[in-house]
């Protein structure tokens, strides 16, 4: 299972995410890292200095997804700007021309 427009594949299945009670907003390509992070947080009573390696890997994954989306949007904007810069013909081309 792969998200459209993304180079990363979904590793966590829907069943795993439901079982781990991952909120819908967080069910992306990094959800497989969020599940052990949340388990660690619960085990360590949400102490901010615990689970730092899990948090770092999850945040890095999210950062890479954001940067990928930004790059895709930049390419779309460049394509649109290129299309706008092309002149629009005033007279349509005929079949015999």
TrEMBL record:
Main location: mitochondrion
Source superkingdom: Eukaryota
Stored InterPro entries: NDUB7
GO cellular component: a single term: mitochondrial intermembrane space
Membrane topology: Peripheral membrane protein
Pfam family, any one: NDUF_B7
Protein localization: Mitochondrion inner membrane; Mitochondrion intermembrane space
Keywords: Disulfide bond, Electron transport, Membrane, Mitochondrion, Mitochondrion inner membrane, Respiratory chain, Transport
Role played: Accessory subunit of the mitochondrial membrane respiratory chain NADH dehydrogenase (Complex I), that is believed not to be involved in catalysis. Complex I functions in the transfer of electrons from NADH to the respiratory chain. The immediate electron acceptor for the enzyme is believed to be ubiquinone.
Family the UniProt entry places it in: Belongs to the complex I NDUFB7 subunit family.
UniProt protein name: NADH dehydrogenase [ubiquinone] 1 beta subcomplex subunit 7
Annotated organism of origin: Salvia splendens
């Amino acid at each position: 299972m792969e998200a459209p427009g993304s180079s990363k594949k979904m590793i966590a299945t829907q069943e795993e995410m439901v079982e781990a009670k991952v909120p819908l907003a967080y069910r992306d390509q990094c959800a497989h890292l969020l599940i052990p992070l949340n388990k660690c947080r619960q085990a360590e009573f949400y102490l901010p200095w615990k689970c730092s390696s899990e948090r770092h890997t999850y945040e890095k994954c999210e950062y890479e997804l954001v940067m990928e989306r930004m790059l895709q949007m930049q390419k779309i904007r460049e394509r649109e700007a290129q299309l706008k810069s092309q002149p629009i013909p005033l007279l349509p081309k005929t079949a015999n021309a």
